[in-house]
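Quick check before the chapter quiz. The format below is the same one you will see on the exam, so make sure you can read both the input and the output lines.
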Amino acid sequence: MNLSRREFSRLGAMGLAARILPEGFAQASNRKIGYCVIGIGRIADHFLRGVQQSSYSKITGFVSGHRDKAERFAAQYGVPKDSIYSYEDMDRMIDNKQIDAVYVALPNNMHAEYTIRSAKAGKHVLCEKPMSTTVADAEAMIAACKAANVKLMIAYRLHYEPLNLKAIQMIRNGDIGEVQTINGAFGFNIARGEWRATKKYGGGGSLFDVGIYVVNASRYLTGEEPASFTGVASTLDHDGRFNEVEENVSWTIKFPSGILATGSSTYGAAMPGYFKVFGTKGWLGMDPAYNYDGLRLRAVYSNGKGSTPVVIDEVNPERDPKQFAREADHMSECILNNRTPTSPGEEGLRDMRYIQAIYRAAGINVG
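Here is the expected output.
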């Protein structure tokens, strides 16, 4: 996400469209985009509740391996039973005109298959991150959506979150001076039996799941693409949870300007997600930075020699699932007005390449 100031202004305008633009902006008819949710797990529940708060989006279908569960959700969201599909017969949605797009909320290794199948059914795709488990799959997803002439957006909800956008704008404005270093981390103590801790479904360990937030933030904060990487990984807890994937990863990214970004992710400890950016005139940071709500931006910097330092301390009062509402409406606005999403498939592909590079630097093969 290499942004000039003009490009950043466009990002902000598009990312915040669902919040600041007048009702009916997307299209004179006020038509809402219908989403079919593929996979009804924890992340899908956040998205479903977000769509209820949205302006241009609605739920019009489900794909699930559990018919009874899907019928309960369909009743809750007003979806007819004939718009419920199994994984085997979901290709029939090609004939369902109430479904404009899909939201792929499956384990990481399934993103490619169901994105490609949805594209072939003529549906736009909003896919959760990480985009896939391999670079090749990410490339195939982009190619399939282009061939079908449908939009592909990766669910980087923080690209549309006001305080993250304000942090970027402050850096671009030079408020903290010339950026020198960035620190960031995110993690949690994973429970036993989670699919995320399997190589097959997760693709890798904590870096794929929560480290991606830190990697992606370093890119949108600097406005640069990485030049080189270092990486190390370790597993301390030999309790059966990490038989297939690593527990901890730490890395350093060097950007072309010389900015250094260090990051860490873990599945072995509560590690509230944060970033902190240090510049020649001061610093800014967010803690928490990646949560669904309660995000806090703080900064201290000087406007000049002898001046009183500027101190900023802001909390976003919005609650979960507002981030998902904004994300869904951005995708819907892009479909209604034939625009490219701010976080297209190419954005997800870049992170896949960088994650792979960090793993390789750490001596781990992730395919």
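If your answer matched, good. DSSP finds eleven helices and 14 strands in the chain.
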